[in-house]
Amino acid sequence: MQHKHISFEKHLIDQEPFYRPTGVEIPISMAAYEKGIPLLLKGPTGCGKTRFMQYLAWTLKRPLITVSCHDDLSTGDLVGRYLIKNGEAVWSDGPVTMAVRAGAICYLDEIVEARKDTTVIIHPLADDRRELPLEKKGELLIAPPQFMLAVSYNPGYQSILKDLKPSTRQRFVSLEFSYPPPALEATIVSQESDIDEKTANLLVKIGNMTRNLNDSGLSEGASTRLLIHAAKLIRSNITPRDACKAAIAETLTDDHEMLEALMEMVTSIF
Amino acid sequence: MNNKEISSFLSKTFAADFMDEWEITEYTNLIEQLPPSLHHEILHHLKAFWPISHALCTSFLEQAPHALNCFTPNHLSTWVKMTLETYETHGLAAARSFMLDVENNFICRLKGKNGLQLQTVSIKLNRYLNGLSNKSIKVKSGSQVSTNSEQILLPGEMKLYKDNDRNFLAYKTIVSFQWAFIANKSCFLDHPAFPSNSNPILFFNQTPYPQLTADLYLLVETQRALVLLRQELPGLMKEAKGIFLSIADSRPAPDHLKGANYIIEAVQLLLLGKNIANHLPPTEQVLYYQVIEILKNLSPKQNTTNTVNLVNQLLILLQPYASDYQTMIPLPFQGRPDYESAQIILSAQRDKAKQQAITALGALLPQIPASPAKPEDEEDKPDSSQKLSGDNVLLIQPKQETKPVENRISLDTTLSFITVDEMNIEIPKATQDILQEIKNDFGYIPESYISSGLQIKGNAQTSGSGPPLRDGPELIGKFIYDEWDYRRGGNRKNWCQLFEKNIQSIKTNFVEQTLDKYHGVLMRLRRQFEMMLVSERFLKRQRDGDNIDLDALIESLSDTRAGLAPSERLFIKLQRDERSICTVFLVDMSNSTEGWVSKAIKEALILMCESLEILGDSYAIYGFSGMRRLRSDLYLIKEFSHPYNQEIKGKISAIGPKEYTRMGPPIRHASRKLLQTDAKIKLLVTITDGKPEDYDDYKGDYAIEDTRHALIEAKMAGIHPFCITIDQKAKDYMAHMFGEINYIFINDVAKLPNRVPEIYRTLTT
Questions:
Q1: Which residue intervals of B537-623 are DSSP H helices?
Q2: What is the CATH number of the domain that holds A118?
């Protein structure tokens, strides 16, 4: 039997990802890393959670292994399983096992999407035991000090079925992510899309206007990611109004009245 | 149809809706006068009018003959629809006056002569405003454009242009300007010579020429608003240029104006983009340039202090012409800010903040004697001794000498601590926020707030025992519940009585009408709920099943090769997910729901029941109301075990406004009932139109905190509470009560029936 080993370099992030801190998330996560405490990132979609993980991995010079969770994810998908290769049973590590072996950062994105019976396998890894039992293999992996576990979720989903069990939640240091302050968000939009600061500022204004509409029936305002999309379209010579309509207004809602109101905001700005 | 046929139709159709014989005769006679070919259609419309308002029904039949002389019968439905819309938005009197003047109110609008109606675009404008400001500001129809910082008055219709797109742009421009006045706090004076946030009229009246001062103030504030709008909404300013120019062209020629009026009009025109400097007489021209020079010193970051200083400079310049000055005609988007009304709103906000601060401080200072103890009524203050000996008492020994209370207490400048008898008490974050708000308003915390806080310290909630109980055949059971008193941080034991009551099922065609009205919606809902029902998934790795699980098989083979015991779970099974969900819909039956709200709630419940019947989720419906702590009523509309049948439909139809909204006891009782079920997921959905409030002192923070606590108790027991509200001010307290993501605000009552099933679907998928 052979072990399939992670190629360390493949998951290393070479270039510094663009990330601007909005609070004390960097010192807290560095401290958590040093002390071997897992991280829980929560915040609305497109506000920079994944980018933060990339930045953290780059800073710590550790590989980053990301798993996008879904409700069909099984423990085997996370931990690994035996496969037959050339008539021989070969153990294949799952992403979590790979990360533990390599002392990488394992990031389970949108963890609430996975079924609760799947997520319990990270429990022994997420407390002070820091171990991962590979039942099939009869092996108990102890995570090296370099290993870090991080999970993320969006608490804004109003589904009672998609919530984190307290027993899972209470193993983490939690960081709340939100949309950055306007000036910083404009810098991010400008940097990511290579658009001028002035247009980036106007896009951020639209973003903030849509976020004020939470009480008028819009479930979630425009994320920084959407603003970047709009900026990229503008950079490709699409008119700002068309870009905002396609990247922001139409993406946020199907309701025609709401769409009209959103477009009124766009036409007030551009 | 002849007299007899009409009469028989009316008695058959409206028998259950309490149409008496007098009304039947009256209506029959009125209908008989109409062309026989329209009888059927008129009777059809009557069905729409009758449940809404009997008076409107009569007016409809009285006005219909005249209306049918003005337009062809094919417009009758549109006329009826517009009448009903007018009734919904402006009430009976407005609907009657709409029907009276068919020519102006209907025919002109039909021909597109009336321009753009505010009511047709108000939702869009309100959302636009919400986007601009995170405060709740609403547009409303009014005689002149103005704002009072909470609402913006706009003309009921906009007919500046033939083209309604441009009319909408005009509305949008006015709204944006008025928003800029609100954002710049133009209605409040912020100047060292006046108390904080004073009425600008105080300043106007201090000068020898109040009217000129008022106009100059508005001019400078308009310029400031313009600077803000150019910075914040460049797109709108670009688009509105054409509107500005056409407004400038439509203003009376300024040649006949003199002195200050001429100069001010020239500046107003310049704001609109039209420069008439060259047409001004030489003296006025020099003054005009001086005025422009002064106005250049404006930026949106400055406040009204700067405005007052600039107005004073302008007054010195224009003083020689002041005695002849006549009030200027405001620009359409400028209007006249309603300074008086803004002060009333500010004062209400201050009262609220004061009350909150006093209560919060009172709760912080329970142990310091303020005044000689008064005899306490045992009923009113049942647990005060318990409060003083509770865990939350701060152990500070009051000094023996009788110093004035105010001297012994001082607030830290950062509002983090309150010092009592040289001892620091930390102020909770919520109280700090309230105090900060007051400090921002006044510039300091008035001492009277602290001393008043001391006066009420330790006071338990006062409450009467309520009206005598009315035991009747509807009474099913009596239950006793605790109530949470946030100031003592504990429960008032056995404080509330809740009565389970039966609601009499009534016979009506309300359900049929609703099903008919929402036929399309219902089809869509049925399809969506059916899709939820067939949420099938393949269960992998089963001992038996419909198909072989290849992954499992391969793994099992590999395990065998690896020398491990192979798994026997090698099959895939198609499984229908069992929805083990149990829901209680707790419906607010307070008297504030009277009219459209109650109707919308009932319609929503019917659509919800129809959808849930498809899904098979277990659900119960309870209505709640009551008066005072000894009589909270919970009306059993549908229990979990009841099938959705005619009787339940009749009970839903019978839901109607009762008394007050004491939310704590019904939430506790509904939670208790939910906990008796064995569903995996227990959901408590409250549908309400306002905040909890009762006839006694169950209001404000006390009511909110008790409701919040009842919900926390429910959450701890594993129930998921959620609230659907139509209260415009929900944002102020709902997030605190239910949690930020556990409530939804629906801004249009008419959308409630549509939205409730959708919300349920989102919650449970």
A1: 550-561, 596-615
A2: 3.40.50.300
